[in-house]
Write a structure and sequence with these properties.
5 helices; five-stranded antiparallel sheet
Length: about 160
């Protein structure tokens, strides 16, 4: 088990490395001052990556969007972009128009736009769960990931830039 840390004792008691050294784990909150104020402003968010899977049986995929939800900030946002070159490389002859419409429909659902149909009338949490539910279509969500943010819109843009563009 070389190179792994093994939890030992109650949560927050520290960990024991494979060399037997004890590493302290802080159970205290953030230090007073600027760091504490910054932490207090941060809100939890959840996100998933929308992936295009042209041929499910082959398992090849590429990222085409990000869905971000922050209940505390009452934000549900989606950014999408279909890379025609990647689609052509993985599925020559596949019509990107249909996939673009599906991605646009997902954006409409997230924004609560009437073009999103009845699902768009659900509350934000229900729409997020609908958007992130596993599916067997050509657009599939990844696992849901979490984080903390001061600015959900900026976080969505960063995730989109880092994971899709």
């Amino acid at each position: 088990m070389s190179g792994q840390s093994i939890p030992s004792g109650p949560p927050g008691a520290g960990v024991v490395s494979d060399e037997g050294e004890r590493a302290a784990a802080s159970t205290a909150g953030p230090a007073p001052g600027r760091a504490a104020r910054r932490t207090a402003r941060r809100a939890a968010y959840f996100y998933t990556v929308l992936q295009v899977v042209p041929h499910v049986e082959r398992g090849e995929r590429f990222n085409a969007g990000v869905v971000l939800f922050s209940r505390a900030r009452r934000v549900l946002g989606v950014r999408t972009s279909l890379d025609s070159r990647k689609l052509a490389a993985l599925a020559p002859g596949c019509d990107g128009t249909i996939l673009r419409r599906q991605l646009q429909a997902m954006e409409a659902v997230a924004s609560g736009d009437e073009d999103g149909g009845p699902v768009a009338r659900l509350d934000q949490a229900e729409r997020f769960h609908w958007l992130t539910s596993p599916s067997s279509t050509m657009i599939q969500p990844s696992a849901v990931h979490t984080g903390l943010t001061d600015d959900p819109a900026a976080t969505l843009e960063r995730l989109f830039r880092d994971l899709v563009e």
